[in-house]
Specification:
- The protein is mainly alpha-helical.
- The chain has a domain of 267 residues.
- The chain is 67% helix and 3% strand.
- The chain contains 14 helices and three strands.
- A three-stranded antiparallel beta sheet has the order 1-2-3, with no helix packed on it.
- It is globular.
């Protein structure tokens, strides 16, 4: 009598996140250029929304100060065009070129950050001295440049050390420039940017495969440093207490900005009060075009507008995850992980502060925090976020199967144009 064979175990389905990001490498019939175009469209949509909101706010705030709102927006539009040009140039850069530019970019960004400590070169606002004067332009924030430099440097160090990464020497070599950069930014009084830089490094190190022991040690050190930077400032302590007890906070001091941010979000309702019709931007939200632009957006476009913004940032994160999954290059994965933590993480922090899920801890001034990437007004932030997206687009263009797909698309367009041209010539 033959023994019955045991029934085969049912195969477990792939996790949902792996289904969303797609399989590793090219798949027959799959559009290899999907990541590139999705990321490009999502980023441009966010930029257009940002330009609309900036103009909506500046049409009131600049005019109230006696300035020309259209001229101010025209200058910001020029900055956006410069950022788009930088994004386009970065999207055409190869991975070897980005590796060669890593050390010059990091060195230049840290040198510029040192200028914030030079009397006459630095510019301060609300206790934050992380701006430098730029002739004919105004001011710039070198810390935004440092973010991109750290993302590129992390990938460069990981690839350089290869299988030895995770040792004490290689890890300290990676962390030393990051520690110096964090201290330079912290010296200017911008705790919020420091938090984003730490998130960037954490995302890159996670993709690099750093051990859990290192994360526990570094996380503990980071928490101690964050607690020290927070508790040593009376203003930040007051803001934490205001966040924990919003009803008992002074509505004319540390509780002012969060309170009016919630007013704006509540007034918007489902569909908003309409573009340009915000009430809180009329002097109530003093940083309405930058740190609290999400509140104005929620008031004018309602819950629908805020959900659209959240979905677009989720799409950017999905594109980053897809690049990581489909790339065969460790450098690409590490740099993408850092940029993803930077852009998506900063967006989550900004929106969480506006809706009251996190306290305002960015800078000494209770009215200043972190900008919302691509949407808030801010020349340095906009240019370098677009530049970072250009790096991601470059990686997307070099996914397995993507170069062939782009080459085939260009060839098809050339053939179509040649056919149209020949027909016109025959008609003539």
């Amino acid at each position: 009598m033959s023994q019955e064979q045991p029934a085969p175990r049912p195969q477990r389905s792939r996790p949902w996140w792996r289904v969303l990001t797609g399989p590793d490498g090219p798949v027959p019939g799959e559009r290899a250029s999907l990541t590139y175009y999705t990321l490009l469209i999502a980023s441009l949509f966010l930029l257009v929304l940002g330009l609309i909101m900036v103009f909506s706010v500046q049409s009131v705030t600049v005019a109230a100060q006696g300035g020309n709102a259209y001229a101010a927006f025209a200058r910001y539009l020029v900055i956006a065009l410069v950022g788009l040009a930088a994004m386009f140039a970065a999207s055409r850069a190869s991975v070897p070129l980005l590796k060669r530019l890593t050390l010059p970019v990091l060195g230049a960004s840290m040198a510029l950050q040192c200028l914030v400590f030079v009397p006459g070169a630095s510019r301060c606002a609300g206790g934050n001295c992380n701006w430098v004067a730029v002739p004919l332009i105004g001011t710039a924030q070198p810390s935004e440049f440092i973010k991109l430099g750290l993302a590129l440097y992390t990938g460069w160090v990981v690839v350089r050390h290869g299988g030895r990464f995770g040792s004490v020497r290689s890890t300290l070599l990676m962390l030393a420039p990051a520690a110096v950069a964090i201290m330079l930014v912290m010296g200017g009084g911008d705790l919020g940017t420091v938090v984003i830089m730490v998130m960037l490094m954490a995302g890159a190190l996670w993709m690099a495969g750093l051990g859990r022991g290192w994360f526990l040690v570094l996380g503990g050190v980071g928490l101690v440093g964050f607690a020290g930077g927070t508790m040593l400032s009376a203003n930040r302590r007051a803001r934490i207490m205001a966040w924990l007890n919003p009803e008992g906070s002074d509505p004319l001091d540390v509780g002012y900005q969060p309170l009016h941010g919630r007013y704006a979000m509540g007034t918007g309702g489902w569909g908003g009060v309409g573009p340009g019709s915000s009430r809180q931007k009329w002097g109530y939200l003093t940083q309405a075009d930058s740190d609290y632009v999400f509140a104005v957006l929620g008031e004018e476009l309602g819950l629908v507008g805020t959900v659209v913004v959240i979905v677009l940032f989720a799409v950017v994160g999905w594109c980053c995850a897809r690049i990581i999954r489909r790339s065969n290059d460790l450098y690409v994965s590490v740099v993408t992980g850092g940029i993803m933590a930077w852009i998506v993480g900063q967006a989550l922090v900004n929106m969480s502060v506006v809706v009251g899920l996190l306290p305002v801890l960015g800078r000494e001034d209770p009215l200043l925090g972190l900008p919302l990437p691509l949407i808030s007004a801010g020349g340095s932030s906009l240019i370098f976020v677009l530049l970072a997206i250009g790096v991601l687009l470059s990686f997307a263009r070099q996914e397995p199967g993507a170069p062939e797909a782009f080459a085939a698309r260009v060839g098809a367009m050339r053939r179509s144009l040649s056919v149209v041209t020949s027909r016109r010539r025959n008609r003539a």
